[in-house]
Amino acid sequence: MKLKLKKHWPTGEAVVQGFNTDFLRHTDKHNEFKIHLDNRFKALQDLLKGKNYYGAQLERDQRSTKLSVSGDAGPQQVSS
Fold first, then answer.
1. Tens of pLDDT along the chain (80 residues)?
2. CB 47 within 8 A of CB 53
3. Could you give the C-alpha distances from 14 to 7, 10, 19, 56, 69, in angstroms and in order?
4. What domain of life does the UniProt record list for this protein's source (predicted)?
5. CA distances (Å), 40 to each of 36, 48, 56, 74, in order?
6. Quick check: 29 and 23 in contact, CB under 8 A?
C-alpha cells in the first residue's frame, strides 16, 4: 500500500516552519511559564484526588457531614 502524502504538501518549495527562539532566551518568561503550568496541573490533580482549592478542606467537610448525619439519629438517653 502506497501512501499519498505528496498531495498534502504545498506546491513548490517545502514550507519551513519557524519557531520563536526569542522566547527561549528569556529565562524569566520560561520560569513563569513553568510555574503557570505546574499550578494548572496541580489543580487538575487535586480535582482528580477529590480535593478542593483549600487542600484537605473537602475531607474535613466530608467528616463533619458524616458526623452530623450520624448525630441526627434521634434523641439519645443517658443511662445513670
1. 665 665 555 555 555 666 666 666 778 888 888 888 888 888 788 777 766 555 555 555 555 554 444 444 445 555 54
2. no
3. 12, 7, 16, 54, 69
4. Eukaryota
5. 6, 13, 18, 45
6. yes
